[in-house]
Description:
Order of helices and strands: HH
Oligomer: single chain
Amino acid sequence: MLREEEDDITQEMRQLIMAKVAEEIASFIIKIEEAKPPVTDEWTEGVGVGMNWAIRILRKDKSAY
């Protein structure tokens, strides 16, 4: 019975940690989106594309485009 309780506690802790990680990733995505510069030339367009790529990585988007 003690082993089962440890397993339950371990699973609950894992779920809490994963929820906290998901919250932090969501906050990172918001920060990146807010930091995008307005597109005024090729350079700022490239910066925006790079930031969009970072967001896709954080969302674990594996599509080609």
